[in-house]
Amino acid sequence: MSFEIHQKVKGMTCAGCASSIEKEASKIPGVISVNVNFATESVAVKAVDEKTFELVKSKVKNIGYEIVDTLKEEKSENGLLKFFISISLSILIFLFAMGPLMHVVSRETNWYIQFALALPIWAWIGLPYLKAVWTLIKTLRSNMNTLIGVATTAAFLYSSFVTFFNESSLKIGLTQTVYFEAIGFIVSFVLLGHYFEHKAKTKAKEALNSLLSLTSKEASVIRDGQEFRVKMDDLRVGDIIRVRPGEKFAVDGKVTKGSSSVDESMLTGESVSVLKSVDDGVFGGTINGESVIEYVATKVGKDTLVAHIIDFVESAQLNKPKIQKIADQVSSVFTPIVIVLAFFTFILWFFLGPHPVWGNAISNFIAVLVIACPCALGLATPTAVVVATGKASLAGMLIGGGSVIEKANSITAVAFDKTGTITHGKPTVLGLEYFGEDESSFLKAVSSIENYSEHPLAKSIVTYAKELGVSPDDPDSFEIVAGGGVVADYFGKQFHLGSKNFLEGEGVEFLHRFESNVLGTFVYVSIDKKCVARFVIGDKIKSSAKELISKLHELGIKTYLITGDNEDIAKAVAKEVGIDDFYANVKPLEKAKYIQEIQKKYKVAMIGDGVNDAPALSKADLSLAMGTGADVAINASDVTISSGDIAKLYDLFILARGSMSIMKQNLALSFVYNTALIPLAAGILYPFGGPLMPPVLASVAMAMSSISVVLNSLRIRKLI
Amino acid sequence: MSENKKIKFTVTGIKCGGCVSKIENNFQDYSPVVEKETGEVVMVLAEDTRPIEIKKKLEELGFPVQSFVKA
């Protein structure tokens, strides 16, 4: 037995933090797994019991973060207010430092004023960064905040010393500059970066938020013939709920009265409304169409489809692709290395640099610390995964996580199951050969008779007749004969229906010739022991199949058909739809073998109906199941296509390929910002006559890095 | 005057007297006569009652219908 929980984590500033939390929490005995996602600020803990989780919570608090109950209301930190205070003070400092107010007072007074303006920024607004420095001294752990803290503290201490102990500073030979404005701008831009990062993260989680806002707050419940407005949380299984046109269904249920079209697009991605009548299932979050409907609640609260999907998407967002794991590891060693590099820079400039030694050394020291903040690196993949999985779920595809996106990107072949995937999986009358004179009376007779049989073939004939406007009557007598046949009397005539063997066994004469090159299951019909007709029944191919196959070919993906049907049918279906190759007469347990066969040359994705194809699906490099979202909870497939629309497969590949390239772009961007610019900040261009990087510029660049990575990830929404 | 019709259904699944009573109780309106050994159930239906409704109900109760004929 185990205890699993998803919660929010506060206090992380970059992926290095996420890594630290995972490492420390995993050390606790009884913890099975810990997964932290920096981009969604969430954590998934699996432990042997709840007590262990409490231990995890306190350990996390010890290292400077906080696990918060997701259900509680989140108070948005007033980041924007702090930014405005900070930037206003910074501008004031700037006016005194380099602006028009520079010579209004004596240099001494000027510096005192700057000090006073900078103090609240450094000590109050910048308190988190100071705390991080203290943590560094205490535990040798560092993160982005540490870099900022060290930078601003170095600048503040130096500047304060020069201000208040001016004579001593002259004696030591300290450069007579102060850096109060740098402190102000650094803190301001860090705050600005965080604010935009937060805003963009919220947009990236938009899909999840829209799922969360799906459910209505109240519903109209019918009790003893009267209507009551009941809150969502108070709805119970068995309640009869009345939904008006345009209203949302509050929970899952079965229609008891009325019939209406329902918009299920938010769950399945299908834009066409579905007609629902008595006994049909309806889902919470969907929107009712033109008529009033009453339904009985079958699943409420956490059991509804919507709740399952939200759960699924949230845990999918915690699932990491390989490149992210590498990025996280790099992040966690990054900050200590940067601190060392910064000190190295300082020493270099101090001992080997030109005058002013102190000034250059300090300035470049600060610049290196600030520009190397690895937040962009930590955001590169998670934000992309969050946007991609969210977008996919809105389109009716449930992607199991970031690693699934990686897998989908590398697929070079797709194996399709036939029945239910390429075909509808329901027997349908493909054609009727009738040698009599009155086809509509004939259909009336046949459908009246077949209406009494539960056989799928019989049902397909009844449906066929209904679609032609013929509704079933009642025969005078009806008998199911063991061995697959039906005998019935209708208006004085004796009918036999069944296979050729059956009719021949009953003494029926076959006077007509039937087409021989036809594929399918045959139901022969005789009247008064003379065969007059044959129904050809088969599994109709989905209309979207052909287009999907050709689009997959455009992507350079090879296609295979694996089926238990005989070779003739497999060949015909493959040809009709354009599939490259097929394996016929495959027994259910053998499917996995054929997947292995294809794997010799390709990376294979297998798409099936989940239940019987399990062994083959688990062998495949990527597994896709078609099913309603309810299967998601128990489905082990990488991807679930909730509406059974195989055309979505193309969208999946487009999304996966696009997301991977955006992830790589993000990593490249963060590399440029965080790593490539460090030498610049350290002053490497100086010996060649190039510029130094003032600390203020470094802080701008650093804010830009996270913003640009997040914005780039948002482009994923435009892929499909 | 509406004509009633007598229909003989042949079902499977009648295992004991309990099943016989079940059918008799659920189809009281149709005066059923149940033959346990052969599975034959004879009922009197009103003219506008469709045999398919009886068939569905029998199957819901657990007695699949093999055949019916106007008796």
Topology readout:
The complex is a heterodimer of chains A (720) and B (71).
Chain A: E1 3-10, H1 15-26, E2 31-37, E3 42-47, H2 50-62, E4 66-68, H3 79-97, H4 107-125, H5 127-139, H6 144-164, H7 166-172, H8 180-204, H9 206-212, E5 218-223, E6 226-231, E7 240-243, E8 252-257, E9 260-263, H10 265-268, E10 274-276, E11 281-282, E12 287-288, E13 293-299, H11 305-318, H12 322-352, H13 357-371, H14 375-394, E14 397-399, H15 402-409, E15 413-417, H16 418-422, E16 423-434, H17 439-450, H18 456-467, E17 477-481, E18 485-490, E19 493-498, H19 500-505, E20 521-527, E21 530-541, H20 545-554, E22 558-562, H21 567-577, E23 581-583, H22 591-599, E24 604-608, H23 614-619, E25 622-626, E26 639-641, H24 648-682, H25 695-714
Parallel strand pairs in A: 15-22, 15-24, 22-23, 24-25, 25-26
Antiparallel strand pairs in A: 1-3, 1-4, 2-3, 5-6, 5-7, 7-13, 8-11, 8-13, 9-10, 9-12, 14-26, 16-21, 17-18, 18-19, 19-20, 20-21
Chain B: E1 5-11, H1 17-26, E2 33-35, E3 40-45, H2 51-61, E4 65-70
Antiparallel strand pairs in B: 1-3, 1-4, 2-3
Structure explained in plain terms:
The complex is a heterodimer of chains A (720) and B (71). By secondary structure, chain A is α+β, with helices and mostly antiparallel strands. Chain A contains 25 helices and 26 strands. Chain A has a seven-stranded mixed beta sheet, with helices on both faces. In chain A, strands 6-5-7-13-8-11 form a six-stranded antiparallel beta sheet, with no helix packed on it. In chain A, strands 16-21-20-19-18-17 form a six-stranded antiparallel beta sheet. Mean pLDDT of chain A is 84; it is low at 71-76. Chain B is α+β, with helices and mostly antiparallel strands. Chain B has one domain (4-70): Alpha-Beta Plaits (2-Layer Sandwich). Chain B is 30% helix and 31% strand. Chain B contains two helices and four strands; from the N terminus they run E-H-E-E-H-E. Chain B has helices spanning 17-26, 51-61, and strands spanning 5-11, 33-35, 40-45, 65-70. A four-stranded antiparallel beta sheet of chain B has the order 2-3-1-4, covered by helices on one side. Chain B is globular, with a radius of gyration of 11 Å. In chain B, 23% of the residues are buried. The mean pLDDT of chain B is 86. At the A-B interface, strand 17 of A face helix 2 and strand 4 of B.
